[in-house]
Specification:
Helix content: 40-55%
CATH topology of the largest domain: Alpha-Beta Plaits
Structural class: alpha+beta
Number of strands: 4
Strand content: 15-25%
CATH architecture of the largest domain: 2-Layer Sandwich
Radius of gyration: 38 Å
CATH class of the largest domain: Alpha Beta
């Protein structure tokens, strides 16, 4: 009978296999750590760029606000009020020149529900130089007015449409309910004329 006896003071271990496994795991962990560190550094630099851009835009906005305020203060001076009023008047004339009653009424006719009648309409320029319409309409139910506001908002000619006030009582059109509707009118832009082509009168020999 044969007996195998290990007389070594320490049992045998495969150190090469141990270090291979642990070395591989350590390499993978190191690569992941470096990748996370790279992503963190890139994100930090991107955040710094964003903050710098935001600070730059805020500075530009503040500068424009200061310039605008200085211009308003200059125009509000007593000696310049006449020039300011004339400028505003000319701007209103320019805007109103592009206002067409025929076009507005045609656009309203396209969205006007049945049994709703237009009583009056008042165009004016708001503080943003947009053409604001205040319309008085009359109908037999509130649903008709809501439908009109919805149709106007869905169209390309009106925006920011809402019912401002509502009142009961027989109107000039004989309807029991009258509404005040506010909307911004978006006039149709006139297409630029096509360039004229020159026609040569030369005859071929």
């Amino acid at each position: 009978m044969r007996l195998d006896i290990n007389l070594a003071t320490q049992p045998y271990e495969d150190a090469r296999q141990f270090w291979t496994r642990w070395g591989t795991a350590l390499t993978v962990v190191s690569i992941l750590t470096l990748a996370l560190l790279a992503v963190t550094v890139m994100g930090w630099f991107a955040a710094r760029r964003d903050h710098a851009k935001i600070a730059q835009l805020k500075g530009e906005i503040a500068q424009r606000d200061r310039t605008r305020q200085q211009a308003e203060d200059f125009l509000n001076q007593p000696k310049n009020r006449t020039t300011r009023d004339q400028s505003q008047f000319l701007n209103e004339l320019i805007e109103r020149k592009s206002f067409s009653w025929t076009r507005v009424l045609e656009d309203l006719e396209k969205v006007m529900p049945a049994r709703v009648h237009l009583v009056s309409i008042n165009p004016e320029l708001d503080e943003d130089n947009q053409l604001s319409l205040k319309m008085s309409v009359a109908g037999d139910s509130r649903d008709r007015a809501i439908e009109l506001a919805r149709r106007m908002e869905d169209s390309r000619r009106f925006s920011k449409t809402y019912i401002e006030t509502e009142s009961s009582g027989t109107s000039s059109t004989g309807d029991p309910i009258q509404f005040m509707i506010h909307a911004i009118y978006v006039p149709e832009t006139v297409p630029a004329p096509a360039p004229k082509t020159e026609i040569s009168n030369r005859t071929t020999p």
